[in-house]
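Escalated from tier 1: pyridoxal-5'-phosphate holo job.
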Amino acid sequence: MTAKTVPFSAAELKRIAGRHPTPFHIYDEKAIRETARGLPRAFTWAPGFREYFAVKACPNPHILKILREEGFGADCSSLPELLLAQKAGITGEAIMFTSNDTPAEEYRQARSLGAVINLDDISHIPFLAQEAGLPELLCLRYNPGPLREGNAIIGKPEEAKYGFTRQQLFEGYQVLRDRGVKRFGLHTMVASNELNPQYFVDTARMLYGLVAELSEKLDIRFEFINIGGGIGIPYRPEQTAVDIPAVSRGIAAAYDELIRARGLHPLRLYMEMGRMITGPHGFLVTSVLHLKDTYRKYIGVDACMANLMRPGMYGAYHHITVMGKQDRPADTLFDVTGSLCENNDKFAVQRPLPPVERGDLLVIHDTGAHGYAMGFNYNGKLRSAELLLQLDGSVRQIRRAETVEDYFATLDFKGL
Ligand SMILES: *Cc1c(COP(=O)(O)O)cnc(C)c1O
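Tier 2 regenerated the structure:
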């Protein structure tokens, strides 16, 4: 079970909404820092442990700066994400560049920043060599295919477009070795929003076993494994957060058995979690515009799917708190809708909520990762502001809301 609480009172949120019109996403700095600190603390046994925050989950430089201060690197997958990491002061090997179907200029940018490049395919070895030159350090992304089961969001590994096959890994590292690459990493990402801690232990065990085989067969030495992101969060109150210390204990046992015992210590452990770091600490705040009573009861709010795509895209559950009415019985079923001309623009379907009035503030939980980030402009919808609830309780706007001028900025109105 997970208590679905909010880091402000109804009166405080009303005051915030008085200065910053809804809808907006608001992030809780204190809680982000606490979660961020918990991760390395759980892995003190692991030499050179590092978390590279997946920038795509919450691409705001103020959030990246907070995470940099907590010792995190950045996992980037595009040119703008690389530049964002750089602007937040994250540089060199504190950046992991995990992309796929990558354009040449992005490899050149990653090279010039000194980022750790993680290749998605064996054909990218000659491509990178030609377009940007091979660096001294390279990482390859493994896709275990039918050797591993996937999960609902990421799908089955053999249907996933990412990564090298097992056979290609052996060929790939051999080519790199023969071309003079000296430093090696091994990466995989096979789960998304996974709540079973054993999944991540199995992933590390799989990579440790592969490192042992590859090291022996090719006579190369690995610096790190990267188990990717994908630790889930309890979106639903009846779910429970992943027990990180249990994940750590499981991985430590695999490390002793497969790495230490074979004389391959030290081998660093890297992760690139996004969701579990910021997800639970962001909230989409929206006002009730209309109440509609037809074949169902509807609450129409001023946010829409353009501000949070997960419910419409995955049918994902996001908890909703009606501010100031937390103690009232949730005895009426509502669909909570936005204004897109799409019937899947619903934040909740047949959700029991307390009685709601126009003007009430609704807080949609767990929007700190893959929330604002997945926003879009369909139907002429403008993306919202992002706010930061700072350590001293004050609120800072860390991104303004889009205006119609932003929406028009790429259009050419001349000669109409
Ligand atoms: C999306 C992604 C992540 C982060 O995933 P979370 O579910 O947010 O932890 C990490 N690595 C790669 C390669 C990704 O594509």
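The radius of gyration is 23 Å.
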